[in-house]
Amino acid sequence: MNTLQTLEDGPARLWRLAQRRALGWARIVYLGAVVLVLLLSPSTYRGAARTRLAHHMVRATLPVLPGFTALAALVSLSITRIVVVTAQSYGLSRYALEMVVRVLVLELIPLTAALFVALRCSIPQGLELARLRAAGHLDRLRRQGADPVRMELLPRVLAGAYAGITLAALSCVVALAMAYLGVYGSSLAGLPGYTRMFGQVFTPAFTLVFVLKTLFSSLAVALIPTASALHPGPGMTELGGLARMFALLLLIELVSLMGNYYG
Amino acid sequence: MTDPSTDGLEGIQRPVAHLRAKAAALLLFTLALIAGSALYLLHARGVFEPTQQLVLVADDSEGVAVGMDMTFSGFPIGRVRHIGLAPDGNVHITVDVAQRDAHWLRTSSVFTLVRGLVGGTAIKAYSGILDDPLLPDGAMRPVLRGDATAEIPQIMATARELLGNLRALTAQDSALAATAANAQALTERLQGPGGALGLLMGNERDARKVLATLERTNALLARLDGMAAKADTQVFGAQGLLPEAQAAVAQLGGLLQDTRASLRKADAVLAEAQAVGANVRAASTDLGALRAEVEANLRKIDALLNQVNRTWPFARDPKDLELTLP
């Protein structure tokens, strides 16, 4: 009897699940659009809003910068060493550096930066937002005539995106430097050849895909955990938000890979 | 006891010391990172480097990509900026040569497009005579193509065929192996008892037979020799067959002459016999006339008797009446 009921309820449950998922994505897209509009609005950067934005930016980026730099340097150096030694054993050392740059700078390190920002900034910020909401802070803001999205969400999302972009840029520079050090050591003799190879890897198309990937990854990482915290409900749990964020990152990575290598 | 939500709020709203300075420094840092990366990228792509153009004319642009290097003695001195198809069907590869490296290129320089086995295609420049005039900006030069991979399929096919043949030749059950084994067996038998003869005859017994036959033939030949000597004596010797035959022939000549004389006599006898025959023929003719006369006489007697009988009155018995001739 119970099984029969479950079977009968199956389509209805699926429909409810799809509805919840669609609602969750729609809220994220809506909040993303609102954030982008507010990002272009001058009022975001005026007066108290600017201070709030600066506060969140500094809080999101500055504490993670040294740790992430050290981590990126370590990972880059290790991977460079592994790739160079393996390539040498196959007699393909002249292609090793290009491979390192492609794998590290273009693909691996920006993704690591986005994940790092998600773990160290966006998810804690989402928790903060959830705590504020639970404490009635957002309702209080509404009662005072202020917009919680503008007041609390926007600075956090912008701070997260900014942290993502900064860490991606920093990680790329660190990875480039470590790849050079890993191959040539402290000698500057290889710099012209290295620069030339870097120019050959970063064609305009690759650069565009890289920039777009970094921007969208940062935005996704900053937006989804905070948006999930702002609108709690059956379709917007914290775990669901994390799953959405990882799915979107994966999608962005896939699209960028396809753009780079199948285009 | 503190309320966790309040505690959280306090943490969130905790002010940051020197916020403006820190934020400005952070922004500057990020901007510097991005701008520095962009400038480095532009520098790496040769945007700030004064260049001169060189157009290479090739018949095939396979493997050539925009951005790839043109090397001189292994050093990159230029990069491909554009690849286009000319109206005459040739490929025009526009290469930006850095002006500081342009002095390596001379009017007599040769350009090659080499496609290696591993890795990409490479455009190389060779300048044999460095005293020649410099290559002018926008010069158009043909590029020689060398494709190491073009011949690979053909070489592979030939090599595969060759290996197949070799494998067939060297296989365990191949004709060559069988021939070698046979040759070895042959050599062993040549070295063994009987030697080549045994090899030819197939087995030792037959080879011995051949040897025995040869010995017997030799003995036979010796006997034939003796027989020939004896025959010579018997035929051509003083008492031989030939002188006796000559005497016999001479006797035969005499005999023939005698025979001829006898025959002549026989001819004369025959002539006489012919004459006798002619006489007999004439006598036979006379006998005919005589017989006719006899017959006429008989008929006359018959007629006479018939007349007597008719005139004979006394006879009653017909038997008695008949006069029977004897």
| Secondary structure category of chain A | mainly alpha
Terminal CA distance of chain B: 212 Å
Whole-number average pLDDT of chain B? Answer: 83
Give the distance, in angstroms, between the N- and C-terminal Cα atoms of chain A: 55 Å
Poorly predicted runs of chain B are: 1-8
> What is the number of helices of chain A?
9
Radius of gyration based on Cα positions of chain A: 22 Å
What's the total number of strands of chain B? 7
Can you list the strand order of the major beta sheet of chain B? 1-4-3-2-6-5-7
- Name the helicity range of chain A: over 70%
The quaternary structure here is heterodimer
Content of β-strand of chain B: 15-25%
| Biggest sheet descriptor of chain A | none
Total DSSP E strands of chain A: 0
What pattern of helices and strands is seen along the backbone of chain A? HHHHHHHHH
Categorize the overall geometry of chain B.
elongated
Biggest sheet record of chain B: 7 strands, mixed, barrel
Biggest chain pair contact, residues each?
A-B, 33 and 35 residues
Number of helical regions of chain B = 8
